[in-house]
Amino acid sequence: MAGRRRGRGSNVQQQQAPQSQRGGPRRALREPAAFAKSTGCESEIPHEKLTIAQARRGTPAHRPVRVYADGIFDLFHSGHARALMQAKNVFPNTYLIVGVCSDELTHKFKGYTVMTEDERYEALRHCRYVDEVVRDAPWTLTAEFLKKHKIDFVAHDDIPYTSAGSEDVYKHIKEAGMFVATQRTEGISTSDLITRIVRDYDVYVRRNLQRGYTARELNVGFINENKYRIQNQVDKMKETVRTVEEKSKHFVYRVEEKSQDLIHKWEEKSREFIGNFLQLFGPDGAWHVIQERSGRMLQALSPYSSPRGSPSSSPTRRRSVSPDSSPASASPSASPPSSPSSLSPPSSPSSPSSPKKCARSSLKAASSYSRHVQ
């Protein structure tokens, strides 16, 4: 039975038939599935027995293939829903009837359930693949039950289901050719869900205490109640410390990031300042170029001053010499005083060499001045 076995199987997805080919009167999905009547199916349409080949080829719209799937469906989950989806789509035109066992039968043959039978009935009614729900379904299917509900085929996974003293409660259904197999969904079952709760019992007790449930409702003693409440307080303090720590780390990270940005900007500005300083005052800087050009301008505007003791190189000195004076008379200090016996007579103004010497001295002075100016 679907939902009775809580093992694991392979996850197989089956292609759904088009919506127009699916049978059943409930098409709008605006209301839950109906409960089956205690008298069974009261359809006036003749119910002829179908083979699997006929059902797979398709049946008229007024004669859907009635497929039955049963189980406990405790803690209704996706594995249950997928099994019902496969049963709904096993034939093109299917009317799916789901039988749900009562609490009495389940507790007798299977064990205690988390959900009550009424809760399980309602869970199945609101599954989109279900067309009809049979309450208090039998644990083992009988011919009378199949005839009463005009069931054509029974859908379940093909793993033998041992229960109620039988090696396989679906053996006679398989022998009659009325069995269609579905695949179980791996990794999800009612037993798995219960195992998670039992394994993490303390976690869920503390969770419900925080949500307002009393220790009496949770069947928890006074000592355990206070222990769980202290653990909740400790967890809150840990969470607060963790939050403060995360905020502190974030603050420190932001400060470090800003300080690194400031250092980076300071380094850039320092490099820029040093570069500008070197560009202005370096060996090839603008300041030296300006000084060099200023020196050239001053040299061009100011005459070159001759050294002391060389009056012959001064143009002013040469211009002050009279044309009729000889070089010897112009610089009496250049030659030592001669004796009276060695003195030559003074040259007369009419001497022919005096004008030539004066002209030669003027030319030398002019050329020297032009060289210094250049």
Automatic annotation (TrEMBL):
One of its GO terms (molecular function) is phosphatidylcholine binding. InterPro entries: CCT, Cyt_trans-like, Pcy1-like, Rossmann-like_a/b/a_fold. It comes from the Eukaryota. It is an enzyme of class 2 (transferase). Gene3D superfamilies: HUPs. Its EC number is 2.7.7.15. Residues 1-40, 301-374 are annotated as: Disordered. Residues 68-196 form the Cytidyltransferase-like domain. Keywords: Lipid biosynthesis, Lipid metabolism, Nucleotidyltransferase, Phospholipid biosynthesis, Phospholipid metabolism, Transferase. It catalyses: phosphocholine + CTP + H(+) = CDP-choline + diphosphate. It holds the Pfam family CTP_transf_like. Residues 13-23, 302-315, 322-333, 340-362 have a biased composition (Low complexity). Residues 364-374 have a biased composition (Polar residues). Pathway: Phospholipid metabolism; phosphatidylcholine biosynthesis; phosphatidylcholine from phosphocholine: step 1/2; Lipid metabolism. Catalyzes the key rate-limiting step in the CDP-choline pathway for phosphatidylcholine biosynthesis. NCBIfam families: cyt_tran_rel. Belongs to the cytidylyltransferase family. This is choline-phosphate cytidylyltransferase. It comes from Seriola lalandi dorsalis. The lineage of its organism: Eukaryota, Metazoa, Chordata, Craniata, Vertebrata.
